[in-house]
Design a protein that fits this description.
alpha/beta; Neutral Protease, domain 2; about 35% helix; binds calcium ion; binds zinc ion
């Protein structure tokens, strides 16, 4: 499914998804079972965004001095008591390399040249993505979203690709070019697919619904990294996967895709979900610009409960306008409607 050597494809390995309603997450769901924390080292969200240096290169996974300022010691939350990367919202299930384990209650200060670094990244950023949704009220004032334990396989695929299988709660990260799980925006992109699948099991069965899946996942990757690492950013906020994309984009600014494109429906449709997803993501980004992050993201995520698995752009846009009306009234609905109609989606 590679459309060019310069554009990475996050393959949507859509299978006949069995909707496993894993409400409550893992077998160890007993209340209080995931109350543990441990320190760990991550990129926050990736070294290009953190330094503003678009000239950084993978250098075969070497821990060069140029990366030193990008390592950040953080607290991993929602862990069980095993000392492994097993928690309420994510479990790292890695079949190669040594599985990360705490030493004296903390995960050692691993850097990018060892496999355990990407494992810690995957755990931390999926958990942060879930925290972001909780911070918006999902699971309290709004319905719960993705209330299950996502399973990650880290550095398990030699190609420069990441994807999900089955019910999309099972994500594999590749290690081609920059290891995919060294970039929080790649991690959260894949998590975005699991969010939609959690809301509408099997979501994304045709071109337009699949494009919405890619566009939302790109959008969520920026929304979460903005929330956790803050804005303004040293690289363009609208740029997705600033670090992973150095391996396959020419620059000078490296982006897998962007949220601020000018594509218009239907004339810019090319029939490929990632490319066409930029029409959708730019509408979501415009809603964020008009209403602010919190209101926009409550509307965008809440609307998705009402999407059909094979929704059209138009029907999904209408559902999003309806969510804006329901949550914030006519003014917000008008702003959302304008974002979609400006792009030919309404
Ligand atoms: Ca690495
Ligand atoms: Ca990569
Ligand atoms: Ca970015
Ligand atoms: Zn994707």
């Amino acid at each position: 499914m590679r459309i060019s050597t310069l554009r990475k494809i996050l393959v949507a390995a859509v299978t006949a998804a069995v909707a496993l309603a894993l409400l409550g997450g893992s077998p160890a769901t007993a209340a209080g079972g995931f109350g543990n924390t441990a320190a760990g080292t991550v990129f926050f969200p990736n070294p290009v965004t953190q330094t503003g240096d678009e000239s950084l290169v993978d250098a075969k996974d070497a821990d060069l001095p140029a990366f030193a300022s990008s390592y950040k010691r953080v607290t991993l939350t929602n862990l069980d008591s095993s000392g492994t990367l097993t928690g309420q919202w994510v479990r790292v299930k890695s079949n190669t390399g040594t599985a990360a384990r705490t030493v004296g209650g903390s995960f050692p200060d691993w850097h990018r040249n060892v496999d355990q670094f990407e494992q810690v990244m995957g755990y931390y950023w999926v958990t942060q993505a879930h925290h972001y949704l909780e911070s918006l009220g999902f699971g309290s004032t709004l319905p719960a979203v993705n209330n299950r334990q996502i399973e990650l396989r880290i550095d398990q695929f030699g190609g420069d690709n990441s994807f999900f299988k089955g019910n999309k709660a099972n994500i594999t990260f590749g290690k081609g070019g920059v290891d995919d799980a060294e970039d929080a925006e790649v991690i959260v992109h894949e998590y975005g697919h699991s969010v939609q699948d959690g809301q509408v099991p099997g979501f994304g069965t045709n071109l337009e619904s699949g494009s919405i899946g890619e566009g939302f996942s790109d959008y969520l990757s920026v929304a979460v990294t903005d929330f956790v690492a803050g804005v303004p950013t040293l690289t363009p906020e609208a740029c997705v996967a600033d670090w992973d994309s150095v391996s396959y984009t020419r620059g000078p600014v490296h982006c897998l895709r962007r949220l601020d494109g000018t594509k218009h429906y239907p004339e810019d449709v090319v029939g490929e979900v990632h490319a066409d997803g930029e029409i959708w993501s730019s509408a979501l980004y415009a809603i964020r610009g008009a209403l602010g992050a919190t209101k926009a993201d409550r509307i965008i995520v809440d609307a998705q409960f009402d999407f059909a698995v094979d929704t059209s752009f138009r029907a999904a846009a209408q559902a999003t306008v309806a969510a804006a009306q329901r949550l914030y009234g006519t003014g917000a609905a008008g702003a959302v409607s304008k974002a979609f109609s400006d792009r030919g989606l309404l």
